Request: fold
Amino acid sequence: MTTTTSPGAPAPTTAHHRRMTPTKWLKKNLFSNWYNSLLTIVFGAFILWVVVSLARYLLHIDTEIIRVNLKLYMAGRFPNEQLERLWLAIYIAVAGVALLARATVSNAQRKATEAGIEFHRSSWVDVLRRFWPIGALVIFTLSFTETITPTLLTLVAAAIGLGAYWIGAALPAWIVRRLWLIPVVGAIAFYLALAGFGGVGWDLWQGFFLNIVLTVAGISLAFPLGLMLALGRRSTLPAVRLLSVTYIEFLRGVPMITLLLMGAFALGFLIPGDVQFSLFLRILIAITLFQSAYIAEVVRGGLQSVPKGQIEAGQSIGLSPWKTMRLIVLPQALRNVIPAMVGQFISLFKDTTLVYIVGLLDLLRAALVSTSQPEFFAQGLDAVVLPFAALYFWVGSYVMSRESRRLEKKLGVGVR
Amino acid sequence: MTATQTPTGTRPPFWRNVHFIRGALQILAVAVVVGGFLFLGNNLRNELIAKNLPIGFDFLTQPTGVTIADSGFDPASPVWKALLTGIKNTFLLVIVGIPLLTIIGTLIGVARLSTNWLVAKIATVYVETIRNIPPLLIIMFVFNAVILQLPPPRDPATPLDWFVISNLKIIGPGFTALSGAGIFAGVFLLAMVAAGIVGIWRTRYSERTGHPDHRALWGLGVFTGIMALAYFILGRPIRMSLPVLDGRIITGGFGGLGAYFAVLLALVLYTASHVAEIVRGSILAVPKGQTEAANAIALSGFQRLRYVTLPQAFRIALPPIINQYLNFAKNTSLAIAIGYAEVTLITFQLIGNGYPAPQLILLLMVAYLLFSLTISFLVNILNRRLQLVGN
Reply:
């Protein structure tokens, strides 16, 4: 990229900077003319002030409230005597993700080799560079624990993850061909580990754990519904198309809160009186209904990105419309949709804090509950615990949005 | 088609006929949906009767029993009036918020592309920090950690004697209208029209003679001149009023509840970070050849931005930015968490007062939906006009 000097042009690449001497670099990037110098001085002073006051503030923070309430933040009121179930569930999730990651990579590698394409597997350093904020966040969290047990249990989780990643390369072929088995079996095992055999039902799945569960469950449940709606919207049947469009546009036109209020206060009216759904379940239904409309639009974008020639090619070799869709259009459409799906995932992850309003104990409510405890009440500690809570959402969203951008570049979405 | 004879004389069975399949599928889809609605509606009816709640919408004319802070709302007023007050409060957020977030977002988006390394970095850090935090958390932070830490209403801060600031209300200088303000407002409209006419005349003049038009300067001059003249002829009908503190009662000035400012600030900062990304992306999306072409015909840096880059970036940015406006409008519903009386909170309170939740939530959704659909409709019209002709 050549450098142009218009304010509208992209900043020069960093590679260009490194070859310059520091003085030249300063002159070019900070003091190129009088107003740039002025801007640099004003904003430099501003940044100095922010950094100094932030440092002074951070040095005087009493983190007592976080140390006392760490379990409340992470898991809410999950019964202490059953916490081993939570760890087991975390191990299952870690193992499942690691297995899936390795199996996907191996699959891609095998296909690339068969097609005779060179395959670049991400190096460990690369993976570390992409996901280090999550590791840093885990270490940060563990620094508030009062015993060594959580640290040891986390190390076990890391070991299980590595082990599962290692096993993932040697999965039998019948599983590799049916990769969907891993998340399905994993989800059942996850549920049984928590709630099975006299365990802890989902009404006590709380804290940051609840935010994660609602995000993953919400997207997973909304995806099939969204896919159907997207296909319905592109259908040649006018009635089906009209129904899909109405549903999608209705839900996209209202805020998520209204759906949550519906889940909390109105869904009970729509089901016969003798059936009772817990608040968690009603909220999950509301989130699923809401997300499916957005996922439908995301998938529709993917469907539109598949050139018409592909469908015609399918027809010309005598495939039925259904087979054309399943074997030719969907694989390409869904591949293109992955970055946007990650974006939707981030958006829901942030929006799960809204369950605070209908009374579920998520991380946000846990943070606010902790500052109303008698020993921490009215000491201005909201300024400590809310940024603490924000950090978890920030790390999650930041890492995922970087991944999404990386995938976008890798898949070449929009570049054809 | 249904009765065409195949050459061999046998007809395929009717269920293989594409018209039959299409019709059957559509009837099936509609039947499932209608059946579902009938089932749910029946349940709803039974449940409402069982819980002794009204079935229709007649309750809208009953007294509310809710109090709305800072609005002079009478709790004995009917339910629909309470909802209207809520809608008005939502609009107060939207109308003030949208211009603010547009300006801040555009500035930050341009700053991210600045050649000044420090400015670009600060803008990047701002965008990457704010847009990855849940908006509700930002609202709670601004309200709990900033607004509520202000002095209590019995002992407010009065910086410069121009502001009265407490954790309940923030009041600054405002305007009071004296007699003649109505006429002055009329003159305001007239002056706008006059400025427009002068602008058109200058454009025509410039096209005819080739002299520079200076229409912004001319228009502004005419407008200011008329307004200044009217202001003094009408005997200064609008004066500045400073808030005056008398015990706990504040008179004069202009301002609002602390909760209002908390929602406004938090959501403007949050949405601006998204707008900044759109602005940046749109400027980068203008093909480089355009900049080079502008350079080739020796336009200055400002001219290049004003006449070449920005108009094209604007066309790219408009649809996603309007989308952000809609998100902002929908996110104002988060004000429910800190007790600002917009329409969602009012609905919530009415449900708490025993009014039927299903109908109220339906009304709430329809209100938001009408707003969203109106905006989308207007944007579609605008978009069609902005499309490149012949593309």
